[in-house]
Fold:
Amino acid sequence: MNSNSGKATQRTYIGAYAVILDPRDRLLLCRLSTGCIEAGFWTLPGGGIHWGEPPEQAVLRELLEETGLEGSEVELIQQVFTHVYPETEERPGDPVHHLGLLYRVRKPEGGG
Structure:
């Protein structure tokens, strides 16, 4: 809560997420860790874009951080998805408007 007004602080979170399929068309997913919104759920590898960072670089950085995989050939496949996470009893934090960009990312041949 914002202590000055007594109202929750609203914020927007912008992330970039990798869509990676293997040769058998299986989708790479990561499990959200404790402390994350929707902890325990499965999601695409990716996350927040740093201030001034191009989204195409952010998706590759996040992929490496979360999976250890280096991606290549980044292609935007969906411009924006959006979801508002309200403050609830299960999620007592401030409301968050989540905006995400989806990128098709290819792994270099022979890379893991």
